[in-house]
Amino acid sequence: MHLSTLDVLRCPYCGGRLELVASLFHSRDGDEVHDGIVGCHCCLFPVVDGIPVLHLDPAAKSACGQVQEGRPDLARRTMCHLDDDQAIRFDQLARSETSTYRDMVGVIAPGLEGIYFLHRFSDPSYSVAHPVARAVAGRVLRGGGRAIDVCGGSGHLTRSLMDLSSERPVLADLYFAKIWLARRFTAPGCEAVCCDGNAPMPFARGAFRFAMCADAFMFIWTKRQFVAELLRLVDAGSEPAAVVISHTHNARVWSQSHGNPLPPEGYRDLIDPTRGEARGPTKDEAKRQQRAATKMDPQRYQRCLMAGMPADDEGDR
Ligand SMILES: C[S@@+](CC[C@H](N)C(=O)[O-])C[C@H]1O[C@@H](n2cnc3c(N)ncnc32)[C@H](O)[C@@H]1O
Ligand SMILES: [Zn+2]
């Protein structure tokens, strides 16, 4: 974690800024923090292998203690949920310069999810999300700004954002081992944050211009809060910004990793700012939208609303 990343991090519980606690164990290489403790008004959180863990699951609490005791190696084991044999294998592979993504996935996620991650680049839902993310992010980040990939897993789509984001894109996911893989193999150079999408997002308002969530929205229970949070993250005043939620399941059609999807009208009610509870439009926005609705092609107007793009009469920006 680069120290400057602290500027965009906020505690998910009190909303306060986070600072590196210099009086507690930490290891740094210049401005890069490898391991340490960050604190706000209410909590201490561990940074493990450069990844701030901004939730209070039991593993995160144990890892916080282990880092304070000067044992970041144990904290990494704890956060990856490894038993002793797996931990030995993981440590060997992590030390080796020739170990591959496939080797590490075999230790961390030997089951079905491992197969998903191994073949993600040829998955139809990736083939759709990649060009959509590049097209929309390329547009809103043209004048600068940062991207975030929420529930980004092991970083396949974070990789799609690397050259578009003016500062390192951020990958956020609940499962530490996946984002560890992303930083090592799939999207090296990204910043990664371990956090729970069912809680308020641990980032400052307007810290990003582009936020995406691919193939994961159906696993989030607090959908209303989640949508409002993604909109808050890209709320940078009049700057162009967009939120993309791609490949989320349909409650009426069974799928293998079904999760908790909504029916189509559920997504409409949630996201359409003229109806949705996730975020009602401000008075000014409502006026602008009404003005735009009378001038714009209705289909384009709807697309703008769904993509969170400004649906005003200033042309195609
Ligand atoms: C099917 S994978 C998609 C990964 C990535 N977005 C992609 O398209 O390659 C779903 C991801 O959602 C993450 N996830 C599930 N529940 C979550 C939660 N409550 N908070 C954050 N991430 C979560 C999982 O860890 C997993 O990485
Ligand atoms: Zn706090």
Explain briefly what this protein structure is.
This protein is of the alpha/beta class. It is built from twelve helices and ten strands. The structure holds S-adenosylmethionine (SAM) and zinc ion (ZN).
Protein architecture, described:
This protein is α/β, with parallel strands linked by helices and 317 residues long. The protein has three domains: 3-80, no CATH class; 121-280, 3-Layer(aba) Sandwich (Rossmann fold), CATH 3.40.50; 287-317, no CATH class. Helix content is 39%, strand content 13%. The chain has helices at residues 58-68, 72-80, 84-95, 101-108, 112-118, 124-140, 156-161, 176-186, 223-233, 264-271, 283-295, 298-307; strands at residues 19-20, 27-29, 32-39, 44-48, 51-52, 147-150, 170-173, 191-194, 210-214, 242-246. Strands 1, 2, 3, 4 and 5 form a five-stranded antiparallel beta sheet that branches. It has a five-stranded parallel beta sheet with strand order 8-7-6-9-10, sandwiched between helices. A hairpin with a 2-residue loop joins strand 2 (27-29) and strand 3. The longest helix is centred in the middle third of the chain and has 17 residues, at 124-140. It is globular, with a radius of gyration of 20 Å. It starts with 18 loop residues before the first strand and ends in a 10-residue tail after the last helix. The model is unreliable at 311-317 (pLDDT under 50).
